[in-house]
User: What shape does this take?
Amino acid sequence: DIQMTQSPSFLSASVGDRVTINCKASQNINKYLDWYQQKLGEAPKLLIYNTNSLHTGIPSRFSGSGSGTDFTLTISSLQPEDVATYFCLQHNSGWTFGGGTKLELK
Amino acid sequence: EVQLQQSGAELVRPGTSVKLSCKVSGDTITAYYMHFVKQRPGQGLEWIGRIDPEDDSTKYAEKFKNKATLTADTSSNTAYLKLSSLTSEDTATYFCTTGVAGPYYFDYWGQGVMVTVSS
Assistant: This one.
């Protein structure tokens, strides 16, 4: 099975900061990497699919990049409503989630 | 619009089994793969498996092959997750999810159902 290593596990940032979250796959997953946001007590929400495609209705401050084994989610200017846990998901071979990054406001 | 409605919370005894439902409205269930995801309290997400209701084919994550069974009833537009030989490790919230815009990512989610395994 493909393993997904996400970093950091915890992140504290200020409103307006540029935030980056990383995911590393144990083998080549091409472009098949998605990002999800989960707020406390809610179901996850799709942000970005296939590395860099912004899902409908998601603000443009969210972006994704990468290929092969290394991927990044970037929030260009952190907003208070972005406080959440973020997960990556590979779907190149089966489906595997990363461990998550909990993002809090400083 | 597609909606996924899951059954209510369950309190179950160790060693027993439980069957969770996920009813699709707004479209026919045979149009999509139906997936289930586990989340233990305060922990991350684990993909359990998926079923194609069109032909009942299934695919499971290795660690859930002897734990989970996915089925679908096209007449009621409902997918099911059965968990067997329950232990405290199965205490978690279980989500159903599907990809409407694309078959391999998850743009629609159920509200989740909490399963508590306790004697």
Summary: The CA atoms of residues 94 and 115 of chain B lie 7 Å apart. The first strand of chain B starts at residue 3 and ends at 6. Chain B touches chain A through 22 residues (CB under 8 Å). The radius of gyration of chain B is 13 Å.
